[in-house]
Amino acid sequence: MSVSVTYFDTIERNYSEVSITDEGIDTKTFLEATEGLVKLFDLLESKAFVFVKSDMSGNIKKIRERYLINTIENSTLESLVINEKVEKKRKATEGLLWLKRGLEFTAAALRHSKNNKDIELKVSFGNAYEATLKKYHGIFVVPVFTLAMGSVPPRATFFKNLGEDEIKIEEQYEIWLQSLEKIVARLVEFYIQGGHDKGF
Predict the structure, then answer these.
(1) pTM of this prediction?
(2) CB 80 within 8 A of CB 74
(3) CATH 3.20.20.70 fits 23-193, yes or no
(4) What is the residue extent of each domain of the chain?
């Protein structure tokens, strides 16, 4: 009997494997897990999400470049941002801020979809966009995202693309999503408490 391979089996790092300590969120494993999340947008089968993927990948690159300058001092996302602030730099801090916002949007859309199995995916993504990202976007960006939300495939197509074993998918999806939500909540609190989101 062949074992059904799911999307969650193919990613390099699961959010559940990202270390979170008193010092913060491990930078290396967070970046690896988020690269896996970017690939999730391929399962939505819409060219409109090319912009979303490009934006997230660009922000991942900014954070990784800062991390590689000193992997020990920048071992957590929090220390990376604080070290940049000391140097009066903002590149990675801004990249992480926008990535955080993108993850908030994605987590909200996927949670709504998982908890409301009778609602189509485009509704979940549309509602999540209105509640999270839209307020940060200008008049030229909103139409791009609105187009992407409207082109989301039926939820049945998306979940089929995640894998064939529905029971396995259900379990993996929940673990992955809960872990993502935990990370997002911690980042949101960190940016608010530290005032690192000012000016963006």
Answers:
(1) 0.92
(2) yes
(3) no
(4) 23-193
